[in-house]
Amino acid sequence: MFSLQGRTALVTGSRSGIGRAVAVALARAGADLVLHGRTDDLDDVEKEVRQAGGETTRWAFDLSETTAIPGAVAALPEVDILVNNAGIIRRAPAAEHSFDDWRSVLDVNLDAVFQLSRAIGVGMLARRRGKIISVASMLSFQGGVQVPGYTAAKHGLAGLTKALACEWATEGVQVNAVAPGYISTDNTTALRADPVREAEIRSRIPAGRWGRPEDVAGAVVFLASAAADYVNGHVLAVDGGWLAR
Q1: Of 4, 87, 132, 159, which has the fewest CB atoms closer than 10 Å, so is most exposed?
Q2: What CA–CA distance (Å, rounded) separates 161 from 49?
Q3: What is the tens place of the pLDDT at every residue in 146-178?
Q4: 188-222 pLDDT, tens digit each
Q5: Which residue, 3, 52, 65, 60, is CA-closest to 24?
Q6: Is residue 3 in a domain?
Q7: Which PANTHER family would you find in this protein's record (predicted)?
Q8: CB 85 within 8 A of CB 22
């Protein structure tokens, strides 16, 4: 039920953090991987994925070049599972948050997801089989502080997930998302380095700790598998209980 044998998965932003943990977990479940990074600095994750049993293809591409995505995707192997993980964050008070930063975050975190999902989804629809899983956020539900662009993008990502699911569920393609809570990754380095904010955040997590990238990977494997064939348009929180509090 959870085997991904014979499937090929593309994980964007797979060099480190959540993307790397997801790529390795998918390989352990039997999938081959298309590993993506903005640059070709993918040696370490490629080695780990191969040790987990997966064959690999490397794709170095800057997702901020959103109009070039359809052409770039055409050169990739056939993709059965798309994990839209790549993302960036820019922190500044809203009154000081530049439009350039706003546009950069929306380009990578939302526009690129639409372009990738559309370009790869066409093949999935033709085969009447496929899984698209995007990495949302607690800020798909909440406002956050000093991250207006990121919050807008993650709210939009939750909506896009539901919109695509409504259109594609009858065609055998499941579109869902995972919403990680506060996870120890590069994107949260500044928060974890701030003793006041770190303590405030951790005190509200019922699990009593920050999450690890591996905590998210199992949820992605589930959504990528046949076990989730009747799950459509869902945003699955993996948050240690944050939203329940």
Answers
A1: 159
A2: 27
A3: 999 999 999 999 999 999 999 999 999 999 999
A4: 888 899 999 999 999 999 999 999 999 999 999 99
A5: 52
A6: no
A7: 2-DEHYDRO-3-DEOXY-D-GLUCONATE 5-DEHYDROGENASE, SHORT-CHAIN DEHYDROGENASES/REDUCTASES FAMILY MEMBER
A8: yes
CATH of the domain at 125: 3.40.50.720
Render pLDDT for 86-112 as a digit per residue (tens, 0 to 9): 999 999 999 999 999 999 999 999 999
> Does any domain span residue 148?
yes
- 230 carries an active-site annotation: no
pLDDT of 186 above 90: no
* Angle at the Cα of 178 from the Cα atoms of 94 and 14, rounded to 5 degrees: 85
Domain assignment present for residue 1? The answer is no
Instruction: Check 150, 182, 210, 222 and give the catalytic one.
Output: 150
Contact present, 6 and 79 (Cβ < 8 Å):
no
Domain housing 106: 8-244
Max CA separation in the chain (angstroms)? 51
C-alpha to C-alpha distances, 111 to 63, 89, 145, 219, nearest whole angstrom: 9, 14, 22, 24
Bridge-based pairing state of the strands 130-135 and 81-84: parallel
Asked whether residue 137 is assigned to any structural domain, the reply reads yes
